[in-house]
From TrEMBL:
Species, as recorded: Kineococcus mangrovi
Keyword set, alphabetical order: Repeat
Superkingdom of origin organism: Bacteria
Entry-linked Gene3D superfamilies: Glucose-6-phosphate isomerase like protein, domain 1
Keyword Repressor among UniProt keywords: no
Domain SIS: 49-202, 216-350
Designated name of the protein: SIS domain-containing protein
Coiled coil: none
Pfam family, one: SIS
């Protein structure tokens, strides 16, 4: 696979300590086709899942930590609609800290764990707590690392299935980029196999987003240090992920506030001041989009038109927002990268002193018994 980046910039980005992150952002359109092919070829995963998803007595919980948790937050509202039953997103960090408040011993559960490396302390511990707390639990592990602790703990185990994505999805840069979209796409294909996923259209929209990198550099060059990121439904999870990307890649120099367009007015709007950038992830749903357009009009009146960025991927009508999140995530990642490049530092390793780590460290997992 030969990732592309616009304007022949990759050598310069490597010199700035951003080549790895840029490559991992740019490879996503090609990776999505590879992920989709893998899911289709892995008939075992579909066969294992089908009878579980058909059980309406089974609680469906999507889990992960940080960016991996946001995969679940994008997917949960969409899968609730597609499957006609509640699907919940519960972060491993919440599950581990409050098992009694997040797990239901009276309900059989399918726990879908997302993990780039699978080596974060919470990843394996959350599944162990679920095993201890629940009478019946099944584990689907979607990971980018076949050698991670989570994958190894569940490989070949009764009641578990591990789907390992192509090696290129295991981002080596500090921030999760292609791993986020690859896990999202894989889970969507697996958990709602009857729903159409236009992978070629999504990839084309992402290619269009990649060509906007120069425009985003101009936005970043204006020196914003506060960014509001808004989205509704599945795009609320993307807004949260986009906020984290800005914070991570700029080593905390740019602070993002995430919310929904309707929720933003209820207090969080006080975050606005002159020089704030607002990013609105526009829904493809005609009803929801009215609320997005209302807040865009309001923000443009407050900040000026050039300081309001509307992310609206070029896609055919009818593509649902959890899938629109894929090319929209590419724009969010590019924006964060451009903000990072407008400041000192190295986006591939924004914390060379180890203050924050690519794989979380320092977590003590305390014993728990139901």
């Amino acid at each position: 696979m030969t990732p592309r980046f616009p304007d022949g910039e990759l050598d310069g980005l490597r010199a700035r300590g951003a080549g790895r992150t840029a490559t991992e952002i740019a490879q996503q359109p090609a990776l999505w086709a590879e992920v989709a092919d893998l899911v289709v070829r892995d008939g075992q995963a579909a066969a294992w899942l089908a009878p579980l998803v058909a059980r309406h007595d089974l609680r469906l919980v999507l889990t992960g930590a940080g960016t991996s948790a946001f995969v679940g937050q994008v997917l949960a509202p969409a899968l609730t609609r597609l499957l006609g039953r509640p699907v919940e997103a519960v972060a491993t960090t919440d599950l581990l800290a409050d098992p009694a408040g997040t797990l239901r011993p009276d309900r059989a559960t399918l726990l879908v764990s997302f993990a780039r490396s699978g080596d974060s302390p919470e990843s394996v511990a959350a599944t162990q707590v679920a095993d201890a707390a629940l009478t019946e639990v099944h584990h689907l592990v979607v990971t980018c690392n076949a050698d991670g602790r989570l994958a190894l703990a569940h490989a070949g185990r009764a009641g578990s299935h591990v789907l390992t994505l192509p090696p290129a999805t295991n981002d080596r840069g500090f921030a999760m980029t292609s791993s986020f979209t690859a896990m999202l796409l894989a889970a969507r294909l697996l958990l709602a196999p009857a729903a159409t996923v236009p992978v070629d259209d999504l990839a084309a929209a992402a290619e269009t987003a990649l060509r906007s990198a120069t425009d985003l550099a101009a936005v970043a060059a204006r020196g914003h240090d506060r960014v509001v990121l808004l989205g509704s439904g599945p795009l609320a999870g993307l807004a949260r992920e986009a906020s984290l990307k800005l914070l991570e890649l700029t080593a905390g120099a740019v602070v993002g506030l995430h919310d929904t367009p309707l929720g933003f007015r209820h207090g969080p709007k006080s975050f606005l001041r002159s020089g704030t950038l607002a990013v609105v992830f526009r829904s493809g749903d005609p009803y929801t989009r009215r609320y997005d357009d209302d807040i865009v009009t309001e923000l443009r009146a407050a900040l000026g038109e050039r300081d309001v960025l509307v992310v609206d991927p070029v896609l055919p009508g009818g593509v649902p927002d959890d899938l629109r999140a894929l090319p929209a995530a590419v724009t969010a990642q590019l924006l964060a990268l451009r903000f990072a490049l407008a400041r000192p530092g190295t986006p591939d390793d924004p914390f060379p002193g180890g203050e924050v780590n690519r794989v979380v460290q320092g977590v003590t997992v305390h014993p728990w018994a139901p």
